[in-house]
Write a structure and sequence with these properties.
The complex is a heterodimer of chains A (about 290) and B (about 180). Chain A is mainly alpha-helical and about 290 residues long. Chain A has 13 helices and 2 strands; from the N terminus they run ααββααααααααααα. Classes of the chains: A mainly alpha (about 290), B mainly alpha (about 180). At the A-B interface, α1, α2, α3, α4 and α5 of A face α2, α3, α4, α5 and α6 of B.
Chain lengths: ~290, ~180
């Protein structure tokens, strides 16, 4: 109780004021649609929504050294706390959409195996093209969020090449992940290759902030389907939260190890420089 | 180094954890209500919801989150494996959203409808943006190879899941 009183204060007011200012600016900018036309008529279009501006402004200010390191570290655990509101808002669409979720049950369960797509796409690139050595295992077996770091730390240790791989990918995800998914999802909405329900399920990959970014363009493009999109996305995300660890341990890592053996046989590996700073990165349980 | 950090996190007292949780929930709730108002206004919605109009919704959310955290903290002592807090929060909300929850289910639906999904996300990503800077220096030193591999992995899980979902939804006649 004493600890509670000591810590229940507004000493960190700067973080919240900064968050407020960034949020207001981002909302005032609104949604901006960007279209890039191809040479032969076809084109790619995507929209930048306020939440992407929010993260971009933060990163730019951080890059320009306008935010103190201390402030950045203070803000980090706050993400996982305010994400809870979003989870509640999303989960309350499950009840009303229940009959649809049951009907789509097989798809929801089987698409979980799609999370292994990380390996299939990025292992060939990492081993055959970049010749990254065993760092490729750490970077490719998952989307490298907090649970993945725990797995690598336990299996290989974070000091080895696998550790450099997972930490490098983790940092990439923290800095670029949400913006990348926001734009990627927006492009896929425009391409119309997939039904919105499929994209909604794809958005649930176990990280709440990435879920947010990948689902938002869908909700914006299909407001009539918003309820179902939310229900599918959050169900998929919750499933990944529950099965992700086992999926990685039982299928993901063995498959990555096997592919590494196959690919690296005739391709000598250079490896990557290990990151001395890797051990200094503060890993918060952002999405746990 | 990693072990040391783990230990530091482990000794964080429950009082401090709860103080941070409650403080940030209250502040980010207020922030979300303001974002919601600006969003309504910017998108030309028929009704612009003033911050105080969405307070009931935020209050219900707050209660559910606190409940989820309580259950998490209690069960963490007895369960042999870790369960993330958001799993409990998602589960409680899901159960309450079914018609058998009666009054609560209907109230939740009408109240939650007043706060938009997208403005609810803006404060989250604003915090994320502020904290992302801490990894920026390491990120810049990152080799092109790892960044590329990570981004392709991101595409991989997204497309992988979308393809399987699309095929199975087609085969089972949902779409």
């Amino acid at each position: 109780m004493k600890d509670f009183k000591e810590n229940f204060n507004l000493k960190d007011w700067k973080v919240h004021v900064l968050c407020f200012v960034i949020m207001v600016i981002a909302e005032l900018i609104g949604t901006i649609k960007i279209t890039m036309n191809g040479a032969r008529g076809g084109g790619i279009s995507f929209s930048l929504i306020p939440m992407l501006f929010a993260i971009l402004i933060g990163i730019i200010l951080g890059g320009a050294k306008k935010i103190k390191k201390e402030t950045m570290i203070t803000a980090s655990p706050y993400i996982s706390i305010c994400v809870m509101f979003l989870i509640v808002k999303l989960s309350c669409s499950i009840g009303p959409s229940w009959s649809k979720i049951v009907a789509a049950g097989p798809a929801l369960i089987l698409q979980e195996f799609g999370n292994l797509g990380t390996i299939i796409f990025s292992m060939p690139l990492a081993v055959l093209v970049f010749r990254m050595g065993r760092a490729s295992i750490g970077a490719a077996f998952s989307i490298s969020r907090e649970p993945s770091i725990a797995i690598v730390a336990e299996r290989y240790g974070l000091d080895g090449p696998e550790g450099s791989g997972v930490m490098g990918a983790y940092v990439t995800g923290t800095v670029l992940g949400t913006v990348f998914y926001g734009i990627l999802a927006s492009i896929f909405v425009g391409l119309k290759w997939f039904h919105p329900y499929s994209l909604a399920m794809a958005a649930g990959m176990g990280s709440a902030s990435m879920l947010t970014a990948a689902m938002a363009p869908l909700v914006e493009a299909f407001p009539d389907l918003a309820e179902d999109i939310q229900a599918f996305a959050v169900t998929s995300n919750t499933l990944t939260n529950a099965d992700g660890l086992y999926m990685s341990l039982l299928i993901g890592l063995p498959l990555t190890e096997w592919l590494y053996k196959v690919f690296s046989k005739n391709h000598p590996q250079k490896g990557v420089e290990s990151l001395d700073e890797a051990s200094d990165i503060v890993v918060e349980k952002e999405d746990m | 180094m990693a072990d040391k950090k783990k230990k530091e996190q482990a000794v964080e007292s429950p009082g401090k954890v709860w103080a941070t949780r409650i403080k940030v929930l209250l502040i980010s709730g207020i922030l979300a209500s303001i974002a919601n108002m600006i969003y309504d206004w910017r998108t030309g919605a028929e009704v612009i919801h003033m911050p105080w109009e969405v307070f009931p919704a935020l209050l219900y959310m707050f209660i559910i989150v606190i409940l989820g955290c309580l259950i998490h903290d209690l069960l963490a002592k007895v369960l042999p494996f870790q369960v993330p807090v958001i799993l409990y929060v998602a589960l409680i909300t899901t159960i309450l959203s079914f018609p058998f929850a009666g009054w609560f289910a209907t109230t939740m639906q009408t109240e939650f409808a007043k706060i938009g999904l997208l403005p609810l996300c803006t404060p989250i990503l604003a915090y994320a943006g502020i904290s992302a800077g801490k990894d920026l220096d390491t990120f810049k030193k990152q080799g092109f190879a790892i960044v590329c591999t990570a981004l392709i992995a991101f595409i991989g899980t997204y497309i992988g899941s979308a393809i399987i979902a699309q095929i199975v939804l087609r085969l089972s006649g949902v779409i």
